[in-house]
Write a sequence for this structure.
């Protein structure tokens, strides 16, 4: 899933709370022992979740778990990565009532 790396950059120390929500908390000690940097720990946690959850490891499930951890900014960021169109508002043009004539 292409969203794991951008998500891991936003998690910081909160990746452990997310690990609990995603059901991979038993791996936390192993992750902390193997990786020193927080970003690497967060990414490896997400990769383990993806491996263990299989088809259940979806962008929607990840966003739901992040929201359950009350990380609104991170959830919004991940939502934009998962569905780039969701964050964009449609621009409304002015309607002048006049129709443009076709050029020949």
């Amino acid at each position: 899933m292409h969203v794991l790396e951008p998500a891991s950059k936003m998690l910081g120390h909160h990746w452990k709370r997310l690990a609990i929500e995603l059901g991979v908390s038993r791996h936390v000690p192993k992750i902390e022992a193997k990786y020193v940097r927080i970003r690497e720990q967060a990414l490896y946690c997400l990769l383990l979740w993806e491996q263990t959850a299989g088809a259940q490891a979806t962008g929607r499930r990840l966003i739901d778990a992040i929201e359950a951890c009350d990380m609104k900014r991170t959830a919004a960021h991940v939502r934009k990565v998962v569905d780039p169109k969701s964050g964009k508002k449609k621009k409304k043009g002015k309607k002048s009532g006049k129709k443009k004539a076709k050029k020949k």
Notes: The mean pLDDT is 85. The radius of gyration is 20 Å. The longest helix spans residues 38-53.
